[in-house]
Specification:
about 75% helix, 2 domains, MetI-like fold, mainly alpha, globular
């Protein structure tokens, strides 16, 4: 029996190790390729058996428009989260606490905006942006991302607020707080981990978005995800520069998630243990 348990653990950890290697291999390839000189991009030599070169990073950071478009991604992602999180959390709180006629039907209608594939909204949203002159503007792209993330924010925050007993807010209102004050002073601190987790996830979704950005931006508001396609030429692909730009673009959300990991774990596990 003991030997069977040991064998089962060995198999389990071997499978987990294999999965980890497979999952991390693309990131490993990306990072190593970013340090390879152009003539060694297709070399199969692992990192450590060739002399690393920072030439790709120099080209991307100093001889390319990549920093500008990376900054565009930072601005657009942060503003999207800062607008969507308060609005979505208030809507999620309303769905969690108030008696609304046909509430489940309204909630389902909100979620349908997230269920449908983005291409289903491409033509009407593009025509709308053209009509109001918002193509290739920060305002237009941020509005699209708010629309994309709002349903997700409402759905997630509603679950967090439902985990908080209404008695806590009622006690605060008995002590003289209004409904809004009870929400801000009592409910928000109790669900801070969940709200931060929601904000981090929306930041990552917005940061990685490509489809709408590719059809709604040209140069002014273009994020770095769309700019990555400029490394694809008609006759060759600049793999080194592409890998360097992708590595830099991946670092920001990774660092952001690492810094917020404590809130992510606490927020995403709210309600998991009764």
């Amino acid at each position: 029996m003991k030997n069977n348990k040991i064998i089962a653990n060995i198999v389990k950890y071997a499978v987990l190790l294999l999965y980890t290697v497979i999952a991390l291999f693309p990131l490993y390839w990306l990072v190593t390729t970013s340090f390879k000189p152009p003539l060694e991009v297709f070399s199969t030599q692992p990192l450590g058996t060739f002399v690393p070169s920072f030439e790709n990073y120099k080209v991307v950071l100093f001889n390319d428009m990549f920093p500008k478009y990376l900054w565009n991604s930072v601005i657009i992602s942060l503003i999207t989260v800062l607008i969507t999180l308060p609005v979505g959390s208030l809507a999620g709180y309303a769905f969690a606490r108030f008696k609304i006629k046909n509430k489940d039907n309204w909630f389902f209608m909100v979620l349908t905006t997230r269920m449908a594939p983005p291409v289903a909204f491409a033509v009407p949203l593009y025509l709308l942006m053209v009509r109001f002159g918002l193509v290739d503007t920060y305002v237009g792209l941020i509005a699209i991302y708010i629309f994309m993330n709002l349903a997700f924010c409402i759905w997630l925050t509603r679950g967090f607020f439902e985990e908080i007993p209404p008695d806590v807010e009622e006690a605060a209102m008995i002590d003289g707080c209004s409904r809004l004050q009870a929400f801000w002073k009592v409910t928000v601190p109790l669900t801070a981990g969940g709200l931060i987790a929601t904000g981090v996830l929306m930041f990552i979704f917005t940061w990685n978005e490509f489809f709408f950005a590719s059809i709604l931006t040209q140069s002014i508001a273009k994020p770095f995800t769309v700019h990555l396609t400029s490394f694809f030429g008609s006759k060759r692909i600049l793999w080194g520069e592409l890998a360097a730009a992708s590595t830099i673009g991946s670092l920001i959300p990774i660092i952001f998630a690492i810094v917020m990991r404590r809130y992510l774990v606490r927020g995403l596990t709210m309600g998991a243990v009764k």
